[in-house]
Amino acid sequence: MNLPLFPLNTVLFPGCILDLQIFEARYLDMIGRCMKQGGGFGVVCILDGEEVGIAPAGYALVGCEALITDFKTQDNGLLGIRVQGARRFNVVSTELQRDQLILAEVEWLDEEPEQPLQDEDDDLVALLKALAEHPMVEALNMGTEATGQQSLANQLAYLLPFAELDKIDLLQLDDPQQRLDAIQALLDELQGELFA
User: Fold this and answer.
1) Were both Cys, which of 100, 101, 149, 179 would link to 173 (CB 3.0–4.6 Å)?
2) At what angle do helices 164-172 and 176-194 cross, to 10 degrees?
3) pLDDT value at position 145?
4) How much is the pLDDT for 196?
5) Residues in contact with 168: Cβ distance below 8 Å, sequence separation at least 6, in sequence order
6) Distance separating alpha carbons of residues 118 and 181, to the nearest angstrom
7) pLDDT of residue 103
8) For residue 190, what pLDDT is reported?
9) 2-108 and 119-194 share one CATH topology?
10) Can you give the pLDDT at residue 68?
11) Does the domain formed by 2-108 have CATH 2.30.130.40?
12) Are 97 and 2 in contact (CB under 8 A)?
């Protein structure tokens, strides 16, 4: 499966919402093709390099498919799009096109079936509800209601202020319980740093 890549300074997770402002010609063309074909593009996190200009030197080889859910011309005249994370993927190989767009051959990662929330997830569910009240999260209109362990893990991993490398590690985990355990460990680490 070939997917155009959009390297960004963020990690997108399935079911999560991301607003983007598009101004580079290669990405405007890519968005136009995606909208015509009803397809998506791949969001991969930049490990070193810049978001604009020449393709970044390094990016994560795991990413998330982004499907366009809305678009509008912004006050500054640039194209604004809203995407929703869909399937996770691994990058198998890449090819840099003439317009500097990166086209990747990807393999889709298997998603575990959604598991019901457990009693021990209550603290994390409460944390997600608290995050949902933040104006920036509210503006995403993500519907931050966890329907199970998978959606709870994806939303927390996306919204919490973890380092990008930690988020990449979380995105690679297939098992929602493992992802929730890893999120709890990162939260404990953050709390330790705050009270050290």
Assistant:
1) 179
2) 160
3) 78
4) 56
5) 11, 45, 60, 62
6) 13
7) 94
8) 85
9) no
10) 95
11) yes
12) no
- Look at the block and give the residue holding tokens 């859910």: 69
Domain ranges of the chain: 2-108, 119-194
Q: Helix, strand or coil for residue 16?
A: coil
Q: What are phi and psi of 35, to 5 degrees?
A: -70, -40
pTM of the full predicted structure?
A: 0.90
Topology, domain 119-194: Methane Monooxygenase Hydroxylase; Chain G, domain 1 (1.20.58)
Tell me the C-alpha distance between 157 and 160, whole Å: 6
Residue 20: strand pairing partners: 81
pLDDT of residue 144: 64
For 48, the enclosing helix (H) or strand (E) is: strand 41-48
Contact 97, 49 (CB under 8 A): no
> Which residue positions in the chain have pLDDT lower than 70?
49-57, 143-144, 194-196
| CA gap 25, 102 in Å, rounded | 13
